[in-house]
Amino acid sequence: MTVDSTAPDEQPTSDEQPHDYSDLPATITRFAAIANEEERQHLIFDIAQWLIPLGEIKIRAYKNALISAKAVKPADFNDAIREARTALTDQARAEADDLLDGLPDAPTVPYYTNSAGLHVNGHFGPVHLANFIPAITEEITRHTGAETQKLFTIKVTSSVNGAQGEVQVTKAGLRNARDWAYDAVGGRGIIYPSARDEAHVVAAAQYLSLGAVAERTTYAFTGWTEIDGRHVFLSRTGALGADGMDEATAVDLGTDKLNRYALPAPDKGHATQAVRASLDLLALGPDKVTAPHMCAAYRAVLPLQPETTVWTFGGTGAFKSHIAALFAQHFGSELTVRGFPTGWQSTANAMEGIAFQLANVLMVIDDYVPQSAATKTDLAKLNEKVERLVRGAANSAGRSRMRVDGTVRPELYPRAQVLCTGEDVPSGQSLQARTSLVEISKGDVTSESLTAAQRTADQGVYAQAMAGYVQWLAAHYENEENWPEQLRAELAEGRDAIAREAGGHSRAPEAVAGLLLGLRWFLRYAIQIGAVTKEERDDIYKRCRAALLDSSALQAAETRELSVEAIYLKGIHVALTKGHAYLADLTTGGAPISSEATRWGWARDEMDRLVPRGGKIGWVSGEDIYLDPGAAYEAARERAEKFAPLNTSPTRVHKALYAADLLPSADPGRLKTRVSAPGHRPRVLHMKAEVFDRWS
Asked: Residue 117: which of 97, 134, 139, 100 has the closest Cα?
């Protein structure tokens, strides 16, 4: 067969073989010598015929080389591969038919079909298996980001009325023939009872489809992955790499809403305009609102696990959801307030799985309103979802599960940059320390400015800015050795600098540094394409950094109010001032000096005598307080229940008090101090009186 003699839609004859194109440079040179389009298409088809028997890895490697050399276009190559597969399959079937010509009696096959459906040749003659004909038309290799799955597309044709249907099953579901037959053609599909009837139907589907099963690979997650040695970013539209968008890479996230994560092919002609439009979102409202959202969007696409969950909260009418949607639309223009991938009504397992799928993108979970929970059980379930999501994102950890066969399933942990909105914030110091809180008030963002930004988002402008940025990052991934490690080093340097400058919870510097890392890299891209000047870059970065540090400082102060020691001391203060507990004088065992007695739980009766209220929880001597560890803990726990539950054990509470420098007489090995009280020498927690004023 010569290059010019066989059109793409013709089958090669059985005695002809395609040329050997293993000399890649020579093959690329041949394209340069071709004079017309028809000749070029013939050559691409001939190459495809030669490549197909060599396997998928060779096909993709050869394709990438030809595209990089600008010898072929991706669409032309894909079309040629598809046509060549069809031609080779038809040729193989024709050769098989020729082998049977002239034979007096065809050998008995295990399975055959006729107008009545499917039959098996048994030891005692044919057995009618089913009134339909099954065929496996497609074998799909599906990469989930955690494991590789095999899926099969089965076509079922009814012999009753010719009805056809297709169904997709896993390798485990393949054996359940009655189930997939029903899903394909409904109740009209019958498998007649016999020994191993379903097993025969499955085997027949495989047997009758030999040589005719198309194979393809799909991906069921977003974000960075390596395909054929290239680092690419997946979204519904394909694989975006340094050389552009490869739409031939199939990405299916499973639902319509998830498939709205779809970056467009980068348009260099509009890159500068798109980046300017995205940066203009900083002017949508105060920096304390817009800066964290902007930083989170561009931090999401870096190939590192996120450091924090951004949590936007405020009253009704503050446009929380709409602001979140504008930044979500950087990853697909259809990710509007009605297009978020999941919500708090979903199960915790579903949310965890989706957060794993959506790697390196912004995932919005909208409308956290704990006040709307109908019962305490509903509230507990809601808070459990928050706990698992926020803690899992911060710790890069999910729940381990076992398969039926006893092996461990891959751990699904949040890989998305999570952005939550709600009217309240998650409860507890630990959870709040793992979030970056963004408070928004009604009036911070006007409806006029929001509407204009929404029009821009719906036109795909913000997604175009993100697509250009991702392509630029892909070049770094390809060209810089161990680029993610460089990012980690830069993150650590930023975290250390912020830790020296700002206090708060130990997680706060890393959270701020992570968000700023995303902004810093986006501004580098903006500088390179000429979207901003160096002066503009410095101003934007300075404003956002100041906003994040201010928010972090405010959050740190509020978080301290939820610490174990704070809840404990507030609980004791309430018990003393509301008549539920009292302190006795250390020397006399009676009332403290009259000027201080009411402060420590005493009151005057109708005869103007000082009487104690509640139970005794310790002693006082001047400015020194000595708490009975057991009685004080119970009083604090009972009173704290009204404003913040004290679920920590007494031992952990005492250690927290020591860590906060509130036990002046203690040391690490001995937190309690022995004192002389009337009649005995108890072990107590020694504190200063001013502590209760500070935490009142």
From this structure: 134
CA-based nearest residue to 514, from 684, 218, 308 = 308
Q: What are the start-end ranges of the H helices in 404-533? A: 429-433, 447-458, 461-479, 483-501, 508-528
DSSP 8-state class, residue 249: S
Q: How many CA atoms lie within 13 A of 421 on its CB side?
A: 29
**306/406 same-domain check:** yes
Domain hosting 526: range is 258-556
Structure tokens at 136: 């496996």
Query: Residues of the chain whose pLDDT is less than 50?
Result: 1-15, 103-107, 504-505
Residue 7 lies in a domain: no
Instruction: Indicate if 208 and 344 belong to the same structural domain.
Output: no
Burial code (b: 16+ CB inside 10 Å, e: under 16) for 402-438 equals eeeeeeeeeebbbbbbbbbbbbebbebbbbbbbbbbb
Number of domains in the chain: 4
pLDDT score at 402? 53
What tokens does 434 get?
């793992």
Q: How many CB atoms lie within 10 A of CB 217?
A: 14
> Residue 458: its pLDDT value, please?
96
Q: Are 18 and 11 in contact (CB under 8 A)?
A: no
- 134 found inside a domain: yes
Domain final position from 556, 582, 599:
556
Is residue 106 helix, strand or coil?
A: coil
The 10s digit of each residue's pLDDT in 230-253 is 999 999 999 999 999 999 999 999
What local confidence, expressed as pLDDT, does residue 407 receive?
63
Instruction: Give the DSSP letter string of 162-198.
Output: --EEEEEEETTGGG-HHHHHHHHHGGG--B---TTHH
What pLDDT does residue 12 have?
43
Taking only the tens place, the pLDDT of each residue in 508-528 is 888 899 999 999 999 999 999
Q: How many CB atoms lie within 10 A of CB 364?
A: 24
